[in-house]
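Support reply, case 0932

Customer input (verbatim):
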Amino acid sequence: MPDSNNKATILVADDDEANRDLLSGILGAEGYKVVCVRDGDQALRAVHHDSVDLALLDVMMPGKTGFSACLAIKSRAETRLTPVVLVTGLTSADDRIQGIMCGADDFLSKPVNKHELLARVSSLLRLKQFTDELENAETVLFSLALSIEAKDRYTEGHCERLSKYSVAMAERLGLAEELRVALRRAGVVHDIGKIGIPEHILTKPGPLTEEEWKIMKEHPVTGERICAPLKSFRHVLPVIRHHHEKLDGSGYPDGLKGDQIPLTARILQIADVFDALTTERPYRTALQSQQALDLIRDEVRRGWWDGSLVNEFEAAILGSVPLQPAGSGS
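Our regenerated output:
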């Protein structure tokens, strides 16, 4: 077990003082920091306010049961990755199924066996360490993407808006949750490849030269390469690479046509164009939302964008996501 796990904080929730003392004694002797509470409500407060790395919840407690507390922990974005072990004397299959449905990561049967307890805690903490490292990697990518955005005051808030617009459209289209998450992430990191573009090109107020444009067109491939090591980004990579493609094949980097362009990329590219048009730029003022949509429909007639998705985009955005005031940049 990594040394860092020996410093982990473990929550023990049990209404029986003897059980709390037993578990905290075993875990404390192994170097863990142990927080003890008497019921499910106290357990939730501890998880939400303390830095808890793993929770051991007795199933039968006054107030919120271990099942209820587990479900609440797994329902919150901030705590859903915290491992939860249900400690129970219940042995029926229905009870185990209920625990699984509540999101429990593991079970311990009473009376607790010391060696089994330590083995299960060690395994779950090791898994959490890997998960934390993955989240840290995603955080670094997001920070990098936002630092690129910050170089140009005209694109402030662009990534946040793209995430909102794209997710709203994905929800309207009934896309699977994993694709909604991919679009939320892609809204932030779609242009991360611009880290490789010289700043004088990135922020140039006028038209790019042919050579500068050639360099600019490299950023989708660079962005895909940066994010490729993260397996959790497998649905994000096609969006990063293909959000500058056009239905008639005149886009880049691969010149894809029609349905060759992934649906998620087609969604984000419409959101991207809309946001660019409704945001003030050094070479023009921001358009009103309807003006922008009319211009996008002109480009649909030129064969660039998916017209059916533009209609869905208008319905989704005007219906559920408040548009930013033109030129507000936030």
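We compared this against your earlier run and they match. Two observations from our side: The domain at 151-320 is CATH 1.10.3210.10 (Hypothetical protein af1432). The beta strands are 9-13, 33-37, 54-58, 84-88, 106-109. Please reopen the case if you see a mismatch on your end.
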